[in-house]
């Protein structure tokens, strides 16, 4: 893992590990779910010749934590997808997270959103260009700070930004990129 990628992973983990207990007292909603689905694709590599189908199952446990008070908010949504197919080259375990923390003080509100994806290009890079390949690991991270000033109950001014990065295990097939 490169130093830059390690730093971004550590930043995301630090954000998600912040002890929210005293800062977000109040009503907690916990939603747990588990889904099981069958999957069939007649031509996952989008080939004209030597077409091979895949079939299997996708098991998805999901955890959503929410807490909302008049001055603070926390949203944490994490999903794990276990993909098992007749061709083990397409098997993968994918992780997705979306989190948001917000704090209001009189006329000001600050929020920080962050998320990450650790999946494969089979699920993250759906294309119609015939360039699909077998599982290539994809790692994505995003962080989005937001500041809002409300001079009245009807008006508000928001300043927001976002940084998104995507990295691929096989750089010969996909290009790493950043979006600001």
Summary tags:
mainly beta, 9 strands, about 180 residues, 9-stranded antiparallel β-sheet, elongated, single chain
Describe the 3D structure.
- It contains two helices and nine strands.
- It is mainly beta.
- Strands 1, 2, 3, 4, 5, 6, 7, 8 and 9 form a nine-stranded antiparallel β-sheet that branches.
- It is elongated.
- It starts with a helix and ends with a strand.
Fraction of helical residues: 10-25%
Tally of contiguous helical segments? 2
**Arithmetic mean pLDDT:** 83
Unreliable sequence segments:
11-24
C-alpha Rg (nearest Å): 20 Å
What fraction strand? Answer: over 45%
As an assembly, this protein is: single chain
Characterize the largest beta sheet: strand count, sense, and whether it forms a barrel. Answer: 9 strands, antiparallel
Secondary structure layout:
Layout: H1 3-16, E1 28-41, E2 54-68, E3 72-85, E4 92-105, E5 108-120, H2 121-124, E6 137-149, E7 157-160, E8 163-168, E9 177-179
Antiparallel strand pairs: 1-2, 2-3, 3-4, 4-5, 5-6, 6-7, 6-8, 8-9
In short:
The chain has 180 residues and is mainly beta. 10% of the residues lie in helices and 53% in strands.
């Amino acid at each position: 893992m490169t130093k830059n990628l390690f730093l971004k992973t550590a930043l995301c983990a630090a954000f998600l590990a912040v002890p929210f207990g005293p800062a977000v007292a109040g009503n907690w909603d916990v939603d747990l779910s588990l889904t099981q689905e069958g999957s069939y694709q007649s031509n996952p590599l989008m080939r004209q010749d030597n077409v091979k189908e895949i079939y299997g199952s996708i098991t998805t446990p999901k955890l959503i934590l929410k807490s909302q008070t008049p001055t603070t908010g926390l949203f944490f949504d994490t999903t794990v997808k276990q993909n098992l197919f007749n061709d083990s080259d397409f098997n993968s375990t994918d992780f997705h997270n979306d989190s948001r923390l917000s704090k209001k003080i009189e006329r000001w509100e600050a929020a920080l959103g962050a998320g990450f994806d650790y999946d494969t290009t089979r699920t993250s890079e759906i294309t119609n260009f015939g360039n699909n390949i077998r599982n290539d690991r994809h790692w994505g991270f995003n962080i989005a700070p937001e500041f809002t000033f409300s001079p009245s109950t009807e008006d508000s001014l928001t300043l927001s930004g976002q940084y998104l990065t995507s990295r691929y295990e096989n750089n010969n097939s996909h290009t790493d990129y950043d979006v600001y």
